[in-house]
Amino acid sequence: MMALLELHELTKEYRRGGRTFNAVNRASLSVEPGDFISIIGRSGSGKSTLLSMSAGLLHPTAGTVLFEGADIHRLKDKELSFFRNEQIGYVPQGQSLLANFRVFDNVCIPWFLFKREGDAEGRAFILLEKVGISHLAASYPKELSGGEMRRVSLARALINEPRLLIADEPTSDLDVQTTAEIMGLFSRIAKEGTAVLIVTHELDSLNYGNKTYGMDAGNLLPPSA
Ligand SMILES: Nc1ncnc2c1ncn2[C@@H]1O[C@H](COP(=O)(O)OP(=O)(O)OP(=O)(O)O)[C@@H](O)[C@H]1O
Ligand SMILES: [Mg+2]
Question: Ligand 2 center to residue 50 CA distance, Å?
Answer without folding.
Answer: 9
